[in-house]
Design brief:
heterodimer; A: 160 residues; alpha+beta; 6 strands; disordered C terminus; B: Thiol Ester Dehydrase, Chain A
Chain lengths: 160, 138
């Protein structure tokens, strides 16, 4: 199991956009299970009008994508570390296909991401994944592409 | 202004109608919510925030078109490809084509060509919105 401090040593993201709290299981090169607790104190719940229905407090899909993507990034970097082939440059979110939102998460829920490797190359990784809240599957992604951009290209910064 | 749904940030400054949809603009500001951690000392507009810009702009357009008695949600990100970064000072322009799904009156497909002020393509995004009757929870 990897705790939050371990994740800060793996991912470049920091508060408040470090969107993974804990890794429950990891098989380098194969799969990861990671969780993120949703709480009403997160910035995305600031500034909402009074008297809104519960649906207004659904966790933003963009942050579910970010969280699942970061679980995938952690899987890739841990896989690379296990084989000694650290990607050169900075890891960025390159592309995704067929990200479907099947349900919602609310403050008090815990997102559980399960990400599986489709292919790993020295400077890119293709993964697919699912996000669960308890026994409910709330999101599924057909494929996500992460790429390592060389630092020369990064004079202009990573894309994702 | 207060929001009517949870969102990581106000991802749209302005929405204008276009021939086949809308054009949304968003100026990237280092003090935008969440950018302090993405990344410390080197703020970059996260890729998923470009998706959020397109989502918020299209949602606003569909709500304006269909009236107040609907609820619009993001159903799917069918595809997204990120091509170039957006940094503070850049202005994102998302040219969004909106098309009702011929097979499902409750779905709207949005294809967005996203560019920076210098004309560089930053992303291509295809979303599907779900339109539910009833502005409040059933």
């Amino acid at each position: 199991m990897l705790e939050y401090a371990d994740l800060t040593a793996i991912l470049p993201h920091r508060h408040p956009i470090l969107q993974v709290d804990r890794v429950l299981e990891v098989e380098p090169g194969r799969r990861i299970v990671a969780i993120k607790a949703v709480t009403g104190t997160e910035p995305c719940f600031a500034g909402l009008a009074e008297g809104l229905p519960q649906s207004a407090y659904a966790y933003p899909p963009a942050l579910i994508v970010e969280s699942l993507g970061q679980a995938g990034a952690a899987l890739w970097l841990l896989s690379a570390r296990a084989t000694g082939e650290t990607p050169e440059g900075t890891l960025v979110f390159g592309a995704a296909r067929d990200f479907e939102f099947l349900g919602a998460a609310y403050p008090g829920d815990v997102l559980r991401h399960e990400v599986v490797v489709e292919s790993l190359k020295p400077n890119s990784a293709v993964m697919r994944g699912e996000t669960w809240v308890g026994e409910r599957r709330i999101a599924v992604v057909g494929s996500m592409l992460a790429v390592a951009r060389p630092d020369t290209e990064l004079a202009a910064g990573p894309t994702g | 202004m207060s929001r009517s749904f949870a969102a990581p940030l106000d991802a749209v400054d302005q929405v204008d109608p276009s021939a086949d949809g809308i054009t949304a603009t968003k100026r990237i500001v280092a003090t935008d919510p969440y950018l302090a951690g993405h990344y410390p000392g080197f703020p970059i507009y996260p890729g998923v925030f470009t998706v959020e810009t397109v989502h918020q702009a299209a949602r606003r357009a569909v709500e304006a078109d269909r009236g107040p008695d609907v609820r619009v949600e993001l159903a799917a990100v069918r595809s997204v490809r990120f091509k170039a970064p957006l940094l503070p000072g850049d202005v994102l322009t998302a040219s969004c084509q909106l098309r009702d799904d011929p097979d499902d009156p409750h779905r709207v497909r949005v294809v967005a060509d996203c560019r920076r002020g210098d004309g560089a393509a930053t992303a291509k995004v295809t979303l599907e919105l779900r339109v539910r009757p009833g502005a409040t929870d059933a």
